[in-house]
Specification:
6-stranded mixed β-sheet, Rossmann fold, 4-stranded parallel β-sheet, about 525 residues, 19 helices, alpha/beta
């Protein structure tokens, strides 16, 4: 029996797999055109599986040389001689038990290569001796991310590429990792002290790539609903559970945005931990279970936020304060966040890549507040707000008003405008935790308002958080909330207004009725 795989390379005979033949065909076209390129995507985005599948349909035409820098550490990049003599051994290791002739040839050249000039000559000789054109594929190039030695190797490839009409060299070179070549150079400046000569040679201009011959890699590595469906169809043939494949595929995509690891993870949880509950509700429950777990992808995402204060603040403004920021790939912070898979561009705006990441970051940022400011929990006793399994939202918002009045009335405008929404989320979470769920509606965000949808049991509660900007803006906010209530088919909505006026401010709470729908407005 096959299984859904979330660890390492996917193998067709062992694992349920998405049909990525169209992606492989696109990559093959780049190879046939003699392109050099980098497959740079965030962690666990299917790069290694994709690489393992490249060549299956072109082995008759090319020799595929594959290497991986995973596990090599810094030893391979100690100096010029070490790298030049061992790069062939690194390639040879993969063929030790599968292709003795190729293994021996790589070891032979490694034994007599000590300098970059000799490395360049060896590449030419290998390409002349082997009857077919050669495609070189190197995985996990991030292991070389802070080594000037590796960048010099790229310089060798670049020089040979530029004179390939005169000197034999590789048909195509593919590098795979999280970072592209430009960001590899950036990491040299940020993470490692190198000699003045090295800095001058490879990093004097941190944007000048030693591999500026590389073509853009524009193949979409994420899975769309139709592609997800191919994996579910394979599963259904072996396990006839009667799932609505198209519907489940769309629901999985809605939560994951096609992030390969997350797609497989949702499926694996449903199959192995939820008694095969292949329904839209099952997908939702699987997501809840995943968010309670820890894994290397989540650890990496949180670590990237913790290690970069500027990145953290940008993500905080997007995810907590609902700010709409224009996407610009030349912005270093945005470029880094996109490279890590945290954000994407949608209608030229920055948005979190997928709902699962969004929920993960909410929970992380709320937990940070829980550990540093526990005052909200004095006001958030669940038994005061739940009656017969139904939330008393009016009572909840009145208590939040009391919290703001008692604990934060002396705080300045900047603090409340920056932290007010996080305070509300930290207040509401323990009330609904374990039973209910919440999400922030990304399509309704702008820089001044944010809609939160809370699901508790079979009930749904729509709450708009907004900052007082004047009566006209307040009226427009009510209209927008009403429009969203209509979309969600809800007759009751809630509005929490953060009012910074010192003289005119009133801690009031009143119901507004418009077009047969009711809105409770609470000013804090």
């Amino acid at each position: 029996m096959k299984e859904f795989n979330i660890e390492g390379v996917c193998i067709k005979e062992m694992h349920y797999m998405v049909d990525i033949s169209a992606k492989i065909e696109s990559i093959t076209r780049l190879i046939n055109q003699g392109k050099y390129f980098t497959i740079n995507r965030s962690r666990q985005f299917g790069k290694t599986t994709t690489i393992s599948m490249i060549g299956g349909n072109i082995l008759e035409q090319y020799i595929i040389l594959k290497a991986s820098f995973e596990g090599t550490g810094d030893s391979l990049f100690e100096d010029e001689e070490t790298f030049c003599s061992n790069i062939f051994k690194t390639i040879a290791d993969i063929y030790k038990f599968t292709n003795a002739d190729l293994y021996n040839k790589m070891m032979e050249y490694g034994a007599k290569t000590r300098t970059y000039e000799q490395l360049s000559d060896s590449i030419t000789r290998i390409c002349m001796e082997i009857g077919k054109e050669i495609v070189l594929i190197i995985d996990e190039v991030d292991q070389a991310s802070n080594n000037a030695v590796f960048l010099k190797f790229l310089g060798v490839l670049r020089k040979k590429y530029l004179i390939r009409d005169k000197v034999k060299t590789f048909k195509s070179v593919i590098l795979a990792g999280v970072h592209d070549i430009k960001s590899l150079k950036l990491l040299i400046n940020e993470q490692k002290v190198i000699t003045a000569d090295e800095l001058k040679e490879v990093a004097s201009d941190r944007y000048n790539s030693p591999w500026n011959i590389a073509s853009d890699f524009e193949v979409d590595m994420s899975f769309n609903p139709k592609e997800i469906a191919t994996m579910l169809e394979e599963y259904e043939k072996e396990n006839p559970v009667g799932m609505e494949i198209a519907e489940i595929s769309k629901e999985i995509y809605r939560y994951t945005n096609g992030y390969p690891f997350l797609v497989s993870k949702v499926c694996k949880v449903i199959d192995e931990k939820m008694d095969k509950e292949w329904t839209t509700e099952g997908v939702e429950q699987a997501v809840k279970m995943i968010l309670k777990e820890n894994n290397t992808l989540f650890e990496s995402l949180i670590k990237n936020l913790e290690n970069d204060k500027k990145l953290y603040e940008v993500i905080y403004d997007i995810i907590i304060n609902g700010m709409r920021i224009g996407f610009n790939i030349h912005n270093q912070i945005q470029s880094k966040a996109a490279m890590y898979g945290i954000i994407k561009s949608e209608s030229d705006k920055v948005v979190i890549h997928n709902i699962i990441f969004e929920k993960l970051i909410y929970n992380y940022m709320i937990s940070e507040r829980e550990t540093s400011h526990s005052v909200e929990f004095k006001y958030a006793e669940r038994n005061k707000f739940v009656h017969n399994g139904i939330l008393d939202m009016e009572r909840i918002l009145e208590k939040f008003q009391e919290l703001m009045m008692q604990e934060y009335r002396k705080e300045d405008k900047d603090f409340i405008e920056k932290r007010g929404r996080l305070i509300f989320l930290a207040f509401i979470k323990p009330i609904i935790n374990g039973v209910g769920d919440y999400f922030i509606e990304p399509q309704m965000r702008d820089s001044k308002k944010m809609d939160i949808v809370i699901k508790y049991g079979i009930e749904k509660y729509i709450i708009e958080l907004k900052i007082w900007r004047g009566e006209k803006y307040e009226e427009r906010g009510i209209e927008q909330l009403l429009d969203y209530m209509k979309i969600q088919k809800e007759d009751i909505g809630y509005m929490v207004v953060f009012d910074f006026r010192k003289k005119k401010k009133e801690y009031k709470s009143n119901w507004i009725e418009v077009d047969g729908r009711k809105i409770l407005e609470v000013v804090v």
